[in-house]
Amino acid sequence: AKSAGGNRFEFADPEADARAISRHRLTNALPAALDNGEFFIEYQPLVRLEDGSVGGAEALVRWLHPQQGVVGPDRFIPLAERTGLIVPLGRWVLEQAVRQATEWEGATRVNVNLSPCQLTDPGLVRDTARILEDAGLPPQALCLEITETALVGAEDEVLRPLRTLCEMGVDIALDDFGTGYSNLAGLRRLPVSELKLDRSFTRGIRTSPADPVDVKIVEGVVRLARTLGLSVTVEGVETAAQAERLRKLGCDTAQGWYYARPGPPERLHQLALADAC
Ligand code: C2E
Ligand code: CA
Ligand code: CA
Ligand code: CA
């Protein structure tokens, strides 16, 4: 931003300029980064609240940038979505995660995030089927996570590939649930089997006493899920007390730093094996 004649509110903002330049550089570097193998995946366990066992893991992509070190997905996924690179990048993540999942003994499934841009990719269903088949992973062991906001009010065209994947046996989870204001009628038409309650709603369960409004929200979501035959996963579980409360409230699965931060695939393998003992 440049300062424009005499308007004292339009002064130069060097920090905003620096951020824009940084975004521009990252965007330009994305295609080569994929070719050069600079992306890697960390896995975060999904824990069954009922008995504390590891039921699977979510794949979370990171970028090992040659100059900047590890860059988080919040910084580059939006850029990849804007340029369309998210389609090949998302396919790469799916391929890696599915292959990785065949090596886990204890864990039963892998969750992979799907960008709304991938839903309009005509190759999505075919590529997913091929990736599963090549790896020899049953479709039931894959869960695709799509944000609620991407599906609220979605056209049938967008939902069709999801329905097909669902019929194949792939699970679909509604990610960041609670942030997109879906209603009961809207939810019924979505081919989803799981709600992932956004971290912003489990934060208030951590405090002592728990935030009564957040407790009511979790109770409401659990009731809604039961009515529709869906399971509930809670994100952002950071303490033992929070996990215990969420279990008592009827949530099925939990994910968060209390159990493990996202880490290399070997670590998940160890967690799953330790769990089996
Ligand atoms: P998300 O799908 O909601 O993933 C959960 C995020 O919460 C992850 O951030 C995870 O590291 C973080 N998290 C997990 N447990 C805790 C906790 O106890 N406390 C707190 N404060 N945070 C926790 P991450 O890895 O930075 O990913 C950010 C977002 O980037 C993801 O949010 C997802 O929307 C997106 N993303 C990551 N990988 C992919 C991918 O392969 N494809 C697409 N399209 N998006 C991805
Ligand atoms: Ca997710
Ligand atoms: Ca989420
Ligand atoms: Ca255990």
From TrEMBL:
Sections of the chain in a coiled coil: none
Phylogenetic lineage: Bacteria, Bacillati, Actinomycetota, Actinomycetes, Kitasatosporales
Positions of the EAL domain: 23-276
Protein name stated in the entry: EAL domain-containing protein
